[in-house]
Amino acid sequence: MVNLDNDRQVHESVLSEEVIKALGLPAHLNKDDSVDKPRYIDATLGLGGHSVEIIKRGGKVLGIDVDENAIKIAESKLKEVLRAKSLTGLEACPTPYQDSKEFFTLVIGNFIHIDEIARSYGFTNVDGILFDLGISTPQLSSSTRGFSFQNKAATLDMRFNPKVQGVTGFDLLNSLNKRQLQELFEITLPKYISRKLAGEIIDRRRQTPFKTVGDFIGVIVKTVHGKEKINIATLPFLALRIAVNSELVNLKESLPRAFSLLKPKGRLVVISFHSKEDVIVKKFYLEKESDGQAKILTQKPIIPKDTEIHRNPKSRSAKMRVLEKI
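The chain above was modelled as a monomer; its predicted structure follows.
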């Protein structure tokens, strides 16, 4: 059973206004049925916050997410928008529930396959593509998959979709050698801390294999120290989650595939949340501009306003970059 009200209370899509502007969406719904709706791909659908804003403005969305539960929540939100007749211009012409496919199609899948998925559903030559690389609050607070360090008894799983992914967080901690573990944690931590943490993990698993969130926290508190405001477990957990879900590899491989789906003047919008993601995005954008295939519309990344950060502290690390295909 999807608890839509609860999820709506605890999660807010970042940079919503800025995303709409970056995608070049029309200000109002086009009421002329003879004109095709602009089409967009939400490559990281999440709970559907950005897609809701897109269909409100007359766009048609192909939403992709590897998390089956997120898909269900997003579908409920999007259908509720249509039922409520809250689309600009639709008040006088209610959209029937069964006509929702005219506005969106949702697919369970990984964005690394964005080109295959898009072609399967006729979403080529699109007006814009969005990647929001953040993880939703309900996922972070999941008591069963170990994304959060709040529930120490939870299994250290960290897979976005356990049905199709095999390797868990505890699998990596129990099987990688010291050098591999060090490289894993260098994604988010300094080299000397990564080396110490890798050594502590090797020592710990010789006695007892890793299984729970609490097991991982036990080695983190012995090795990771800092004066930052964030919890010391945040960056090690982030690095492990990225590794379990191959997030950086998937991003690097999916960007050129996404770019190939854009029409001329179509825009690729990416919101990243840590430096390794941003470096991949920035490098790809520079390569496309250098090749004369695109124009970078954001010389500096767009970041949330102070009012948004105050309202939603989790948005503070978000950076958005926009590329327009020539």
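Residues 191-207 form the longest helix (17 residues).
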